[in-house]
Amino acid sequence: MTILVTGAAGFIGSHVAKALLERGEEVLGIDNMNSYYAIALKQARLARLTDNQHFHFIKGDIADRALIEEIGDALKEVTGVVHLAAQAGVRYSIENPYTYVDTNVMGQVVLLEAARRMPNLQHFVYASTSSVYGNNTKLPFSVDDRVDTPVSVYAASKKAGEMLSYCYAHLHRIPATGLRFFTVYGPWGRPDMAAYLFTDAIVHGRPIRVFNGGNMRRDFTYVDDIVAGVLAALDRPAPPDESGVRHRVFNLGNNNTEELMRYIAIIEEALGQKAVMQMEPMQPGDVPATYADIEASRRELGFEPKTPIEIGLPRFVQWYKEYHGLV
């Protein structure tokens, strides 16, 4: 079995690839190593994988049709796809919308077209996001809620990915599962995410930007729990729905909405330093609260998050210190 992992040098992708290797899978990773944030961090993540003889890496863009066609022979061995490559970031998407359409929409189409030609493919698993719920005021967010009012280009691009995947499952009988991730954090995390931003600012004595006056709640989810959910989904190809279409969507979250100020306090405690807070209004495209209803994930995937922020955030802080040579 060979599992194709896109975004293999990314935060979640590198963790998923490592978990697959540890359970004995052949992993074909692809990543364009773009400069959205420090390439050195992506290279360091990749270095944790490349010494394993069962890991094979291709540097390239998932939206590059010529490249994906060129590696067609390698893709014939693929039995499962874990598509995690994406242009992430809500705020960045407002200023750079074309990037999100190129990567998140065109990239999804290119991979789905490639999936049609994978003779051994059993399951196409792809990342979506809690951002698709937009300004939904009903908490917790359920996969049965309507998600046709996105408030950022990022959210709209990921909702488009869900719709395209359903279409290909319907037209071409590709079993597909979408996973809506809720604010993932942990070691090797992205520098544009809250845990890294806050930790880095506090360590260097810079103020942290606290939006909506701190009146924010998030379903912060530790990366190991997300990885467990991804692998559980991969191992359970989508069954036919009432229309015979093998497509479904799950929430992967911690099933617990946390106050942002509590999140900051735990980071302060782990660092032994206080934050200087710069209170700011709500940012365009942002939402005040997220909260995952994971009953379907529990029932169908056996998904059960185990890591509260009181445990996960100190682990992240310890990794941050080690990575930056502060211990």
Describe, in plain words, how this protein is organized in 3D.
The chain is of the alpha/beta class. It has one domain: 3-Layer(aba) Sandwich (Rossmann fold), CATH 3.40.50. Helix content is 41%, strand content 18%. It contains 12 helices and 13 strands. The chain has helices spanning 11-22, 39-47, 65-70, 72-75, 90-95, 97-116, 153-172, 194-203, 223-234, 260-271, 295-301, 309-323; strands spanning 2-6, 26-31, 55-59, 78-83, 123-129, 176-181, 184-185, 207-211, 217-218, 221-222, 247-252, 258-259, 276-280. The strands form 4 sheets. Strands 3-2-1-4-5-6-11 form a 7-stranded parallel β-sheet, sandwiched between helices. Helix 6 runs parallel beside helix 7, helix 8 (194-203) crosses helix 12 and helix 10 packs across helix 12. The protein is globular, with a radius of gyration of 19 Å. 48% of the residues are buried.
Task: Jot down its keywords.
327 residues; alpha/beta; Rossmann fold; seven-stranded parallel β-sheet; two-stranded parallel ribbon; 18% strand; globular
